[in-house]
User: Which sequence fits this backbone?
């Protein structure tokens, strides 16, 4: 790593990032202001595809899922190293995505999650080109869809299991977020999400009193769910996020539902929690059918999966973690290995070494309308250089 | 009663109801097709007020609550006998209230509950006029607001506790529904309804795992509520009608809520149930605050009353019940005394003898979009005549 960052090539690239910084800010603003709601990333995707072309990549394309990507060809023979930022935001159509700039602070929904990273990838390409850096491996630059909640990592699932580069990507970096630049996400917090709908005959609250109620069945399931015990480490969690159902105060509901979320750093713990959850739903249904009359019909539960993100772990001993750690240290920071739920969950779950890095700076309020980032130059350039050093080292800088 | 129904005057009125029957159907359709959602009864109220004027009543007016009414003056000295049908329906604005007529069957939201009764009152006035029937007591004809759920009997509450006839109405008949004509509702099922909102700090389902959750507090309250025991007689019931809350699957809700309904034929049982309910909500909140971390804030419950209808009973020995029973029998049917929640709840709770009668015919699907009535002439005329005989006997036919 010392050799890399002290090489003339890398120094030239690092200097280019500095000279080019205002353009990077302009790219960040421009991309942020193209709204990109879940499942509606096409406009931002098309704009990013044009930018990838303008940056001279080859094989620039949009795949069937909506990911856009292009190759920076290596000198040949090496595996593909992929680096991606996600196109989607959590914000619905109609959200005001105008960026408010105050000094080095940019405020707008999605500006840090993940528009700036999209702009960072472009800055890295320009810096490598300015410094005439060649790598052994091909580098695949990707703007991907579906990273946020409802997308359920659909972009990554397609890229790694169906797209034309599946089985050809040796290592993966997700560029996500604007933070100090020292975190290396090498653990994938897995999650399972369900919409559970309890259905029954329904009826009049007075006239039909005594029949089974989906509301009471659901309450029983929620109470059992809340009473589960999970380990603090590996961190494992559960939550009821949203509840609904029923038609009027004087009717026994024919349907109630709840959206639940379970997560774990450990696949085994997540599987154990998932099994306990399914079993308690069945028990709550059976108990309601035993506690009240089923003369007009029984309670049944429809358990529909709405999210499935695999858990996993890129070992700290893997090259990608070692190189990223060395890169962080070479810029005077202390690396911290952490768990999160990011695009890297998919390659990690497939056994492909993957990490998630941020690009320096500071930020807060991600997923809120008052989201902001601070692109103070020293910290931001440091983060971008850490990412560049990691990338070119993995790709075999020549 | 035998004297009444065999009198020349009553026979003339009964014959007038027959001759006038198609007009009664036309009135039913016309009134049904003026939408009258809860709290938005003004258009139908204004139309009914004009009809009361056209029917020659005196002192026709709309009171401050929106009830419309007029007097058919008696020969003097007697107390006021009031008869009312309600203007409001359960259906929201925008509901298609066009009546579909197929033979004697009329289908439309609200047609039987309670448009036809509004039309029945007009038919009774015309029949009495055609037969030149005079009564000793004044008869107050009322189209009232707020009978359905959210209205919480506001029309009756105003009429009997604030309006200009308060303390002057000696007996009350609610004309409600289209059924065989033999039921006499002399028992008032009381009810209490609440919107309970559980509030907490909220947070991220993974990052904030371990903090208190309004969803789990509510589940515990619902489970305790569902486990209460109530007597089969006097009939006492409880239900969770509607639930909601939460913002996204990956957030711990900052708020969840439930709409609950409790009813009883007995005021003492309803009070007992109400006390148990309030106590279990407090216990569920305390248990959630003890079970999980309150470092970011505690759970609190906001218990807001949304409905309060008093229980009570007009004794079977009361004149109004005796006369109505005799009237039913004189038309060859067997009276059945029943409990329900109707406009009569208010006078009954105030100690004013009151009953609820339907006007003959058949119906089903009240409160549903496919509500219908069958105004088959024999049964419908019989019901209307039972109601007329009851009314003129109570008012002292001369």
Assistant:
């Amino acid at each position: 790593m010392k050799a890399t960052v002290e090489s003339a090539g890398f120094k030239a690239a690092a200097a280019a990032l500095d000279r080019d910084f205002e353009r990077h800010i302009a790219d960040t603003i421009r991309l942020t202001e193209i709204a990109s709601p879940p499942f509606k990333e096409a406009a931002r995707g098309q704009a990013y595809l044009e930018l990838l072309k303008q940056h001279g990549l080859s094989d620039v394309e949009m795949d069937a899922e909506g990911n856009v990507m292009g190759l920076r060809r290596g000198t040949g023979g090496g595996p593909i190293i992929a680096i991606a930022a996600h196109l989607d935001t959590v914000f619905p159509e109609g959200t005001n995505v105008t960026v408010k700039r105050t000094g080095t602070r940019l405020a707008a929904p999605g500006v840090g999650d993940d528009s700036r990273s999209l702009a960072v990838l472009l800055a890295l390409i320009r810096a490598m080109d300015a410094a005439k850096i060649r790598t052994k491996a091909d580098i695949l630059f990707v703007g991907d869809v579906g990273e946020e909640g409802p997308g359920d990592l659909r972009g990554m699932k397609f890229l790694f299991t169906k797209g034309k580069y599946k089985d050809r990507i040796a290592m993966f970096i997700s560029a996500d977020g604007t933070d100090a630049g020292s975190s290396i996400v090498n653990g994938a917090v897995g999650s399972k999400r369900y919409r559970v709908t309890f259905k029954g005959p329904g009826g009049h609250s007075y006239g039909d009193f005594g029949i089974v109620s989906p509301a009471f069945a659901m309450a029983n399931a929620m109470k059992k769910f809340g009473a589960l015990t999970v380990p603090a480490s590996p961190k494992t969690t559960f939550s009821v996020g949203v509840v609904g159902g029923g038609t009027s105060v004087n009717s026994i509901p024919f349907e109630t539902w709840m959206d639940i979320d379970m997560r774990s750093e450990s696949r085994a713990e997540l599987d154990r929690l998932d099994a306990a959850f399914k079993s308690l739903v069945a028990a709550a249904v059976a108990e309601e059918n035993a506690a009240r009359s089923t003369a007009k019909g029984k309670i049944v539960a429809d358990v529909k999966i709405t999210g499935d993100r695999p858990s996993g772990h890129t070992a700290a001993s893997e090259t990608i973690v070692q190189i990223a750690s060395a890169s962080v240290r070479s810029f005077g920071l202390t690396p911290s290995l952490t768990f999160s739920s990011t695009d890297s969950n998919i390659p990690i779950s497939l056994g492909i070494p993957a990490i998630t890095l941020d690009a320096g700076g500071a930020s807060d309020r991600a997923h809120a309308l008052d989201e902001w980032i601070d692109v103070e130059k020293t910290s931001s350039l440091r983060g971008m250089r850490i990412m560049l050093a990691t990338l070119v080292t993995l790709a075999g800088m020549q």
